[in-house]
Amino acid sequence: MKIYPSLTVCPQCDSVYRYRPYTPGRTAVCQRCQAVLWRGDGSAAHHLLPLTIAAAVTFSVACISPVLQVDFHGVNNEVTLWQAAWALSSGETLPLLALCALFLLMAAPALQISLLSWLLLFARYRRPAPGFITLMKMLRWLRPWSMVEVGMLGFVVAAVKLSSLLEVAVGPGGWALAAAGTLIIIITRHDLHPLWALMPVAPDNHHE
């Protein structure tokens, strides 16, 4: 399979363009359909590694620590991200909705962070990670399925509604979820196209 790091394809209309790094604040768009091709973020791909590690730490805290703490007449109850998602399942029915919530709120973001960390760790040493092409395709596929910000908004709405009846406080997991959601949005907005330059380009041999 030949690799062309200098070329990029429009995700909407499949037009082919020559890639050129842009300065911060500039955005390259397709001349045919106006879809965004890449953005000039002004930072090399290896600068993302500390942010990705921070996202991994904060998201891990959000998954294991209480997101909300509820107090009702001296009776305290704590809700974790796992419990909140699994609460959507009901008795004897298939917990399909709960499984979807677990995937969108926990599995997809965790995979996104893990794959990006793996790629950036090798990119720091100017090497393509094992399984580079497959992992890049997986990252692109996972991008619309990571919905940490939606879950964060849901917890805010739930906390506001419950605050009129109960004493509700944000737990450590809630603050960690807010930090992780912000970091995930930041790292997923960066242009990963420069990573393709790490792939060795096979010589074009023609046999007559």
From TrEMBL:
Task: Please state what the protein is called.
Answer: Paraquat-inducible protein A
Source species: Erwinia typographi
- Kindly state which keywords UniProt assigns to this record, in alphabetical order: Membrane, Transmembrane, Transmembrane helix
Known InterPro entries for this protein? PqiA-like
Record bears the keyword Transmembrane:
yes
Transmembrane feature ranges: 48-68, 96-121, 142-162, 168-187
Short name of one Pfam family = PqiA
Signal sequence region: none
